[in-house]
UniProtKB/TrEMBL annotation:
Subcellular location: Membrane
InterPro entries the UniProt entry points to: Glyco_transf_92, Nucleotide-diphossugar_trans
EC identifiers of the protein: 2.4.1.-
Organism: Gossypium gossypioides
Main localization of the protein described in the UniProt heading: membrane
Gene Ontology molecular function terms on file: glycosyltransferase activity
Assigned protein family: Belongs to the glycosyltransferase 92 family.
Name the UniProt record assigns to this protein: Glycosyltransferase family 92 protein
Pfam family, one: Glyco_transf_92
Claim: Lyase is one of the keywords in the record: no
Length: 592
């Protein structure tokens, strides 16, 4: 204090005055100190993290997190010649897939979204600072994901060029960070128990095996290159390409107040952190509320499809007629009219939704994602492809068959039925060379004798927390078990080997993670391939007569007898898509 008083000796008044001024000066500094401390504390609380309460909240040590990085002024400009103009949109993320580039656009609130015709894919030189594009191409597709957000699919450009988008009227928009698909955290959902489920590529874990969770940790934040600025969290389970994390309470609470969600990724302890575009999302059907005692839908179906527009109508309408109430369509980079068909079915009264899923070879992850979404809405959900149709020889509705199967199995004590496994019978071209006009169920009637694999109908809450699945079935919790269904009760007619015009599309790419594409020289004798076909999409001379060991008209006969219009013999998918229009005949009874 003596040194401080020496500094004050310059005051021109007497000794008494100097003491008075010294006290006031010290008091002012004291008030300033406490005021500054209050501002800093308020800033810390406002930004959603605390230094002293992490152990109390989480029972473990956490680093503080800086939730959102502030953008520099140059990021809010559009490159248009030499003059920046007002920001209209930003390219939030860019992901390089093997044969295309995915760009995620973010628009300001209430801004008008550009159409496909108004946007260009722009290719810039990485090393040249000039804003003049080296190349422009039209987007392959532009989809609106949600309010104010779009997904743009661009053709892969020449190597060494930076890819962004531009508007024909507003110039070129700044490029975003670019990620390679083979190493990426790409989706994240908060489950009903408030844990975070992260979907990743690049960990290369073994299929259908639970891995050691202690070797990994989850990180929340924006800049994962600076570990001091992220929030770390325990990994509860990790298997295949799905990681379940303990969500920090402070992240859960902050998401209620902040519109833009924080990113999530996975870090290998002692190693690196996966790049991430996975922003924390919440289940839309039921949020984070406890599961309802009575769900709105008894039976639902989920599928992952690419370019199945011409078959989707038959698939949805038929399954509606046998009792399915809800459809989840994961669109895996379709470039046909899939979106329009889904919209027309929805407008006609079918409870169907399209979920954009651009991620290649992630069918297992997509089905797990779908199971999470359906947990609050569906008692049972089946996972089948668009060329697979449930056949119920008994003539009962699907929910009645499921009820009979699960209620008659009473010898397992406290163990309940959580999964119904249904055998798949693969049908061949049946002598046809053109797509059948009445649909696949009526057109294809010759199949292989022995079933190939099976498909599953599951209770979403019965699934193991790891969400392990191999497309055909899931791993269940310890208090649930599966049953195999006799084909006289239920079977799957899999119209796998259709006319060559349809079948050859399978050579494009397989959607499952752990199966080789048909053009690859791997597992050429797998049941997932066409026997004797090899790796080239060349039509064999005898294709139309292949895969025909037994004639099976069971489903065809039932469809024509129960669903055809008695006046003109047309089936419902050949005419209107209006769910309420017309009369359908089922087992000698009329259902309006």
């Amino acid at each position: 204090m003596r040194k401080f008083l020496v500094v004050l000796n310059w005051f021109p008044k007497g000794r008494k005055s100097m003491r008075f001024r010294s006290r006031n000066y010290i008091n002012s500094w004291g008030r300033f100190f406490w005021f500054a401390a209050f501002i800093v504390s308020a800033f810390v609380l406002f930004n959603g993290f605390s230094y002293s309460n992490f152990r109390f909240l989480f029972g473990e040590r956490f680093e503080p997190v800086l939730k959102f990085a502030r953008k520099t002024p140059t990021a809010n400009a559009i490159v248009s010649g030499e003059h920046p103009v007002t920001q209209i949109l930003s390219v939030r993320e860019t992901v390089l897939l093997p044969d295309q580039v995915i760009l995620f656009l973010k628009y300001p609130r209430s801004a008008r979204l550009f159409t496909k015709e108004e946007l260009d894919c722009v290719y810039l030189s990485v090393h040249n600072t000039s804003p003049v594009p080296r190349l422009k191409q039209s987007p392959a597709r532009v989809d609106t994901e949600q309010l104010g957000e779009q997904i743009v699919r661009c053709p892969s450009g020449p190597r060494g060029l930076l890819i962004t988008v531009g508007s024909k009227s507003n110039g070129v928009f700044p490029a975003s960070p670019t990620h390679h698909w083979d190493s990426l955290a790409y989706e994240a959902l908060v489950d009903n128990d408030n844990t975070t489920v992260v979907f990743v590529k690049g960990l290369n874990l073994r299929p259908e095996r639970v891995s050691n969770a202690s070797k990994f940790e989850c990180v929340y934040g924006e800049d994962f290159s600076r570990l001091k600025l992220v929030l770390r969290s325990e990994v509860l389970s990790i298997a295949q390409e799905i990681v379940r994390c303990r969500t920090p309470l402070i992240v859960l609470n902050s998401q209620k107040k902040v519109n833009s969600s924080v990113k999530v990724s996975v870090r290998i302890k002692g190693g690196g952190t996966l790049p991430s575009i996975a922003r924390l999302g919440f289940l839309s059907d039921s949020g984070r509320d406890p599961l309802p005692t009575r769900k709105p839908h008894e039976t639902c179906i989920c599928t992952m499809a690419r370019n199945q527009a011409r078959f989707l109508k038959e698939w949805v309408i038929y399954h509606a007629l046998i009792g399915v109430q809800r459809w989840y369509i994961y669109d895996n980079n379709s470039d046909d009219d899939t979106d329009q068909v889904i919209e027309s079915l929805f407008n006609a009264g079918y409870n169907i939704s399209r979920h954009i899923w651009p991620w290649i070879k992630t069918q297992e992850g997509g089905f797990s994602h779908c199971a999470l979404r359906a947990k609050g809405s569906c008692e049972w959900i089946g996972f089948i492809d668009v060329d697979e149709f449930l056949h119920l020889p008994s003539g009962l509705f699907l929910h009645d068959v499921i009820s009979n199967l699960t209620s008659t199995v009473t010898s397992f004590g406290n163990i309940s039925i959580g999964e119904i496994r249904v055998s798949c019978y693969s049908f061949g071209p049946s002598g046809l060379k053109r797509i059948p006009k009445q649909g696949v169920m009526v057109g294809y009637t010759c199949r292989l004798v022995v079933p190939e694999r099976h498909k599953s109908i599951v209770k979403p809450e019965a699934l193991n927390s790891t969400l392990i699945n191999i497309v055909h079935h899931f791993h269940l919790r310890d208090d649930f078990r599966f049953i195999d269904v006799d084909r006289r009760m239920m079977a799957v007619n899999h119209y796998k080997y259709q006319v060559w015009e349809v079948f050859k599309q399978k050579f494009y790419r397989r959607v499952a993670t752990y199966v080789a594409d048909w053009k690859d020289e791997q597992n050429v004798r797998s049941k997932d391939r066409a026997p004797g076909l090899g790796t080239r999409a060349v039509e064999p001379v005898d294709w139309s007569s292949r895969f025909c060991e037994v004639t099976d008209t069971g489903l065809k006969d039932r469809v024509l007898r129960n669903f055809a219009n008695p006046k003109n013999s047309l089936l419902p998918w050949q005419t209107t898509t209006n769910k309420k229009a017309g009369t359908w005949f089922v087992e000698e009874k009329t259902y309006k």
